[in-house]
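Blinded run. Sample ID left blank on purpose so nobody reads anything into the name before looking at the predicted structure. Input follows.
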Amino acid sequence: MSVKLTDHEKALADGVHGKAKQKAMDLLIRYADALGAERFCETNNVAGVWTVSNPILRDYTRNGMDAVFSEFNLDSREVVETPHTEAYSCQLIQGVDPASPEMREATGDAADLQKAGEAYFGKRGVAMFSTCTPYQVGNVPVMGEHCAWMESSAVVYCNSVLGARTNTEGRESTGAASITKRIPYWGYHIPENRRGTHLVEVDVDTDDIMDWGMLGYWLGWEVEEDIPVLNGKLISPSMIKLKHFGAAAASSGGVEMYHVPGTTPEARSVEDAFSGNRIRKTLRYGATERRKTYEDLNSTAKDSAVDFVMLGCPHNSIEQMSRVARVLDGRKVSASSALWVFTPRAIKDVSDRNGFTEIIEKAGGRVYVDTCPAISRQMPKGTKVTAVDSAKQAHYLPAITGAQCWFGTVEDCVDAAVTGQWKGGLR
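Blinded prediction complete.
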């Protein structure tokens, strides 16, 4: 064992604080050694997965939720009692919307498995946010805070926009961190590893969500797992735009961190973003790269008749719910198409109270929570052609479902749902 332990960590590893925490510490020590981490850092912010919603795993649930936690969160065949969390912990996106009759019918007892897990782990301290965007519903770590988060689009947002520190963790390491408050000190926890590597000059106006998504998608291919520093025509960066940008960059590449000088907290200037690092490469994103990226994102789409429109990947904010309702108000979804909108459960409650959900559903759309088609593998029966406003979803959905996929603005997508035809294009 090469990782150095504090007295408290030794006590955890020796079982002084219980069997589950001993198992968790054993997992984390093996993990740290594999990474070459010299020590642990303390974390009080964990975003991971505790429940199950796959009927294939029902045998584990028959043995109780302790068996689920032991096997999938502690890598232990021996079943140990699940303790209350020590760190502030939240549940990420799940497999099904348990309140949806359509999904319950399609997934059998998956919703019941998920609800049982929520009830069990919720009582043990896990906040049941059930979203890929925990920062939209209350988990907002401060700059410099050490976290243990899963989910690529959440990780890049946490590092870049919030300035907190996390690597892309897994179910096991987040589960162990939730009851030990420890995670290996390596990667993006180390300040020197958070400096920029590539300078990206943006030569075309980047304003709408669609443009930010395209920029992120192009950038992921270009820098892979490195840290880009963006400069140029970046108009009004906002939570929504940066959310879509980071999600796209983490999908086409492995971007876990970026800097937008003057916007993201660790970069007041380009020089500040690099902090003495040599610029490995300068990249330029102009009209040619923009058009090529749009064509790449629409490369699977051939037929103009659209069966299914999906909005809300990553999950929609309340501002996005307002935008969908405003564009859809007074219109009707075509009988030949379907419109599904995904948002966190907490935001749907606000959407309900604001009347946005009613407008969407009165038009023939549906508002779902807790999941998305890429996770649930659920779409309307017979879907062959989809339309989305998310570069991340345009990347994953065709590969997962085999369906064609159009990518465009929110307005393009709503128009496709209303007319049953794709008429979007690059403007």
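Unblinding after everyone has recorded impressions. DSSP finds 18 helices and 14 strands in the chain.
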